[in-house]
Amino acid sequence: GITRPCVKHNFLVTDINELAVTIKKAFQIAASGRPGPVVVDVPKDVTQAMAKFSYPQEDIFIRSYQPVTQGHTGQIKKAVQMLASAKRPLVYFGGGVVLGNAHQELIDFVRLTGAPCTGTLMGLGAYPAGDRQYLGMLGMHGTYEANLAMQNADVVVAVGARFDDRVVSVPTKFLEKSKKIIHIDIDPSSIAKRVRVDVPIVGDVKNVLTEMTCLWKKQELVITLAALEKWWQTLEAWRSRNCLWFDNDGEIIKPQYVVQKLAEVTQNSAIITSDVGQHQIFAAQYYPFERPRQWLNSGGLGTMGVGLPYAMGAKLAAPDQDVFCITGEGSIQMNIQELSTCFQYRIPVNIVTLNNGYLGMVRQWQELYYSNRESETYFDSLPDFVKLSEAYGHVGIRVEKKSDVEGALREAVRLKDRLVFLDFITDKKQNVFPMVGNGKGLDEMVLPPHMRETPKDSDVNDVKDRDYDTRSVP
């Protein structure tokens, strides 16, 4: 019973003859609808019992569990008409597109309509990062242009996303500017959970996007060209402020630079895993993900220590691909004993530790909102990660100068059959920007230093451009 709040369903097997059918049901429930974990509790007397093995080959009908996969035709018609009438459209997608294998359908729909799009942390890779119509990630650490687009859009098409607190922050502030919302999700409980929705569509996102694309073509719909061009001019003006620029002078290693170089060395093709903290957001902001399942992360669950196990699983599933775990010196120690498992099973992943000697994200909040009162966020007792990785039988490399970053990364890629632990000693006080503080709206971002000047004329009417302010309280 204790698992109920955090699993999709759970079973207790009391009879050995029910075990095979229960396992079949568990996998069926876990993999269909909105995917999620299912617990099968097998008591010891059942594990010791004997029975004739017979595993059902066909899906089992579960009367109480019948997820809707086809969207309502009438609602789909309303949705495409509403989008076609938009002046400032935006497609907002989340992890549901990845889970629903609907990335190609999303790409086709976005390119057909000509609308801009933005994705959540869990949706990265569902739409290619290099495409002009992609505005970058949105939310608490989203790009300037993506956040302002979300706040100022008049029609938002949400695809496999939840409008969670890391994306829209405060619903009342998000809805301050009038907008119509179309929400597509296979999980009816996710629709209109945090914000009011004008056109709800329950169904598999792959099927719904396919139907919307077909209907758009059939009715020969277009978004008014003049309005769309004006919207794109505004978006490009926001994008031109280059919110992810950072000062990279000197030999001190900036964490952003490490991620950028990793993307360059791997040609944006590696599988990237991460833990939780500043390194997680730097990875999301500076590594351009071009395909789904290229980015493995715990998202809103906020689980430190998962990066290395994720990388191990990815390497076992895709042995021919380069796999990099981007982590921090705090997170990696949560499951560092898995270096032993990597040696045991010969799993040659690469670990990139952005080592700033701090629990960086917590320190950042202490700096911005708690008058620089640092508490329990710094490390005076870190291990020597090079010696530690070598003790486990792997290759360890410490990098302390910017000029050595690229060479170290290329060496890791070259050593295909070895686990390489790269310990990058980075700038201790780098912060992640932009940032939407607690209780703030998407247009109330804390901006990076180079953007903290009077907003441009094109921004004044659309955004409350907030300066860096350490005195504000969440």
Task: Write up this protein.
By secondary structure, this protein is of the alpha/beta class. It folds into three domains: 1-66, no CATH class; 73-239, TPP-binding domain (Rossmann fold, 3-Layer(aba) Sandwich), CATH 3.40.50.1220; 255-425, Rossmann fold (3-Layer(aba) Sandwich). The chain contains 18 helices and 16 strands. The protein has helices at residues 19-31, 44-48, 73-84, 95-99, 103-113, 144-152, 165-168, 171-174, 205-218, 225-239, 255-265, 278-286, 307-317, 338-344, 360-369, 385-391, 405-414, 457-460, and strands at residues 9-12, 38-41, 89-93, 117-119, 134-137, 155-159, 180-185, 199-202, 271-274, 295-296, 323-327, 350-355, 395-399, 420-425, 435-436, 445-446. The strands form four sheets. A six-stranded parallel sheet has the order 5-4-3-6-7-8, with helices on both faces. A six-stranded parallel sheet has the order 10-9-11-12-14-13, sandwiched between helices. A two-stranded parallel ribbon has the order 1-2. Helix 3 packs across helix 9 (205-218), helix 11 packs across helix 12 (278-286) and helix 11 packs across helix 17. The longest helix has 15 residues, at 225-239.
Global outline: globular
- What's the level 1 CATH class of the largest domain? Alpha Beta
The class by helix and strand makeup works out as alpha/beta
Query: How would you state the average pLDDT, rounded?
Result: 94
Provide the domain count: 3
Describe the biggest sheet? 6 strands, parallel
- Count of separate DSSP helical elements: 18
State the total count of DSSP E strands. Answer: 16
At the fold tier of CATH, the topology name of the largest domain is Rossmann fold
The CATH homologous superfamily of the largest domain is named Thiamin diphosphate (ThDP)-binding fold, Pyr/PP domains
